[in-house]
Amino acid sequence: MLKPTVVQQGEIYHIRFRIGSRQLWLSLKTRDGEQARIRAKQMEAVAVTTAFATRLQPKGAQVSQIREDLGRLVDEWRQAELDHTERAKIDSGGFDPADVEDQTDVYADLLEEAHEALTSNKQWQVKSLADGLVEQHGLKMGRESGEYRRLCRELLKARAALYEEEIRRMDGRYTTVPSVVAPSPFTPPAAVVPSIDLRKSFDSYMSQHTYRRSVTQRDIELTLNEFLKMSGLDWKTVDVRRDCVKATCTKWKDLQLARVAARSFNKKLSYLQHLFRWMVKHDMIEKNPLEGLGVATRQQRVESNARKPFTAEQMRLLLDSLLNTGKKDSRFWCAVLVMHTGMRGGEAFPLCVDQVKEQGGVDYLDLYEDESRELLLKNAASTRKVPVSSALRGLGFVDFVATRRKAGNKARLFPGLSRTWDVSMYVKRAMRRVGIVDPALTLHSTRHFYATQYVRAGVQSEIRHRLLGHSLPGSTQNTDYVELNNLFPLEVLRDAHKKVRF
After folding, report:
1. Residue 84 in 3-state DSSP?
2. Is 176 inside any structural domain?
């Protein structure tokens, strides 16, 4: 019987669990209770899979055979879905061209979501489908078993493949039925096929996807600009049919992964994949050159867990490095603000002047979402009030804000900044100047620093979550019955924030 337990020995947390008669102890390598529970869940998942393999799997069964059986089951489901769609097409008669285009757009959006779910391994999205297949075929597998998780993973892959096939079929291309087409005498030679005007194609693509938020549209264009620049191409001279080949795209991938985390790369990749799939659908190119370039989920998880907090000494060195530049521009003040509040970089750079407020003698930042002004937050819990510390005021932040108020209350607090990357690179250069070269330390490590220091200072869990913009731990009552933004007075938040110094 598997009984995992988190145990604290000294300052370090450990996990203890039993498989059969064996009792195993593993260090979680952390002093943080919340981080220990997260790592314990990850180790528990591995332990459950191990227990299944050693205790529940039939004697002599081969893993390859199990995979083959699950793969066959999922393939049957995908084919049944395709057949169901075909029957609907037969019953409905003819389609108008507008209906075909609308339905193809629907499938394209579904495919984008399916690819995102696949790269992020969001198995919860297909659990109801997996439960239905388990019940339908009378399979004996629990939700914690390795077989069940493999089934969910295969369903994520099959769902993406299903939408890709549906898009091809809406375009009249049935890959499951081989066909021989006689060459047409009117087909022009390949040499005279006109190249694609990428700017016109991109503008047309954006005009057909105006439902997207403006910040997303901007990110898509920035990503494409970055792709062309890294690939040595130009808007005016690029020949999409010849230049955007697999080798070029692989080069872009390698350069990206040297600069950003795998999760960020996959997000940029999804933008470009959706664009090129749209171009394939409209016969601008024959094949999407970016298919299959995603980074594995396991690699994402390793990289996301690789970040660690700054020490207080490193924070002081970094601040000294920023001050020694002698130039207090937008990048400087944005970086200093992140360092003294624990905010996300994406919350800091788009701030407007009227978000810096004062109440009862307490200066604070009022974080909220306003799509019309491109003030976007990660989630609902990110809406909060963040006190301005005395150390930040001592650096002249309040005077800087007073100067910016002359540009108007709706003006950007940090003009010239258009993305977190601008501040991240600014901080990276400052780190190198003082010899901080650990790749696990980034601008986001300042946020890890505050999370760690709040715990060490004994700050109440709910107050920590409010200051950092995290959802409160526990059941749904926290979101259903508690108004988070006014849960704690500013004075309480300020006093808790004072406990972190460097």
Report:
1. helix
2. no
Beta strands in 281-418 (DSSP E): 356-359, 362-367, 384-387
Quick one: DSSP state of residue 54? I
Residue 328, class by beta-carbon neighbours within 10 Å (0-12 exposed, 13-18 middle, 19+ buried)?
middle
Tokens of 15: 């996990």
pLDDT attached to residue 47: 57
**Model confidence pTM above 0.70:** no
DSSP bridge partners of 358: 363
Is there a single domain that holds both residue 394 and residue 493? Answer: yes
> Which DSSP string corresponds to 348-369?
HTT-BGGGEEEETTEEEEEE--
For residues 499 and 16, give the distance between their C-alpha atoms in angstroms, rounded to a whole number. Answer: 34
Instruction: Based on the fold, state whether residues 285 and 373 are members of the same structural domain.
Output: no
**DSSP-assigned letters across all residues of 231-273:** TT--TTT--HHHHS-HHHHHHHHHHHHTTS-HHHHHHHHHHHH
pLDDT at 1: 41
pLDDT value for 39: 77
- Which residues in the chain come in under a pLDDT of 70? 1-3, 17-24, 43-68, 91-103, 105, 175-196, 213, 241-243, 296-306, 473-485
Which domain covers residue 353, as residue numbers?
312-498
CA-to-CA distance for 47 and 277, rounded, in angstroms?
A: 40
Per-residue confidence (pLDDT) for residue 44, from 0 to 100: 67
* 24 DSSP 8-state letter: E
Beta strand spans in 2-129 (E):
5-9, 12-19, 22-27
